[in-house]
Structure formats: C-alpha cells, structure tokens
Write a structure and sequence with these properties.
The protein is mostly beta strands. It contains one helix and 17 strands. It has two domains: 81 residues, Immunoglobulins (Immunoglobulin-like, Sandwich); 124 residues, no CATH class.
Amino acid sequence: MSTRQSIYKLLLLVTTISLISCEEDIFNYKDTTPPEVPTNITTETGDNLVIINWSSVRNSDLEGYAIYYSDSYDGEYNLLGTTCKTRIVDYGAANGITNYYAVAAYDFDGNESELSYDVAYDTPRPEGFEQNLFDFRNFPNISGYDFSSYGIDKYNSNNTDFFFENDGGTFYLNVWADDTDIQSMGRTNNIYDISFAPTDGWVEVQPGDNIKYVRAIRGYTYVIWTYDNHFAKIRISEVYEDHIDFDWAYQTAEGNVELKTNRGMGKRSEKNTVTVNRKK
C-alpha cells in the first residue's frame, strides 16, 4: 500500500469517527434551560371574573405560559390554565374572594421558569348597568339605592346607601352624613376608569345638615364608602328631570386591601327626613 493510500484511509477513519460522535451529540442533547420569568403581571377586576395580563417573554424556544392562583402570595399555587397569549381570564373567580396570581413560561422541551415575582391579586365584585334612580322629592319610595341588595329602596330606608335629588333644576347625589361618605372622581370614559377607593377627599358635612352631597353630573364617576366598610362606585350615564341612569360596581369583601380599610363596623340610625341648607 502506498503512503498516499495509507494517509487517505487514516483521514477517512478519523472523519467517520467524528461524524458518529457529532450524530451522537445531536441525538443525546437535551435543553434544560428554562425561559425567562414573566414580568409585569397585572389584573383587571370583573364581575365573577379576573383578567390577568403580563409582558411577553422573548425566548426563541418559548411554547407558552402556565398561569397559577393561590389564596395568598406565599401560599400553595394551583394551575389555572395554559396559553400561548399574554392574557387569560379566570372565569372561576368568585365575587368577594381574593386570589393571587403568578405566571410561568415554558419551552418546547418542557422546561418551566420560576413563578413570576410580582404581587398580583384581585377581588371580583358585582356590577350593574343602566340602573334608574328617581328624585326623592317626587318619588320617595324609588329614590334610594342599596348596594348590599343590588336594588332600589326608599330614600330614608336604613339600608339606603345614596339617593338622588332634583333641587329646583340642580341635581345631587346624597348620602347620610352620620354613616356614609361620598366624593366625585370627575369625568370618566366608563365605570372601569376608577379602580381604587381614594384615601382622602371625602365630602364634609355642612353645619346643620344631616346629609352629604355632590352635584350629579352626566359622565362623572363617584366613590361611596358605606357605613359597614364597603367600597362602591357609580357612573352617571344620563341625567333627567325626574331620574338618573347609572352604572355601578360594589366590593362585597369588607376590609379588602383595594379598599379604604380599618373602618369600624357601624350601625345605621333611623332615617326620617332630609335637613339641608345648601349654599347656592
């Protein structure tokens, strides 16, 4: 055998061994690196539902996201569902119950990231639309609204949280001064524009009055803090001579962290008639 033939066979053997080794590496390789942890977890409150959003993860081998829920931030998390999008709706969330949410990303090899670190929680609450409320001077039995029963009541009922008034062509929302607070949040596009109860800015009672009041204006949203430490909001969609149309949302969970907290339990006093001396 010539020297050239010997060198050629040696090179062929080395190349064959190298190819076998490369093929073995290809078939034996397994990705064990998880994707990045999702960030910017936010929630949107609904009626018996919570919408969870987050920022997309940029890993090239990303397959999707796993969303989890728990009754506390440091608690045990259960799988809510998976999706390839950056938004999911928890239709199983019950009104008045707080859930904490976390999101993990996973790739095509089944590697899953750690749970997101953001503190993301929400408490669904009931809501309603196009409710009518009439002027208490002319329709006293259908002029008050009770959030706890989601219904109309007398303006001076012990259960009434606020009532409507047409005072000579000037319109007001009234609450009883001894147990309820109210304030205007200004013009909004819809009922969802206001997410949390304010910490201050509540209307002060005027000397000699037994109600607090704000002007009732179309397109404005108002926050109400009830006697038993619940948060509610209404948005007036229309104002008429004898009634208003409004949308509402009411937080059934007392002392929820999204509300103004540490308010003592109250007991309503008997309501009779309105005494008010407004400055025109």
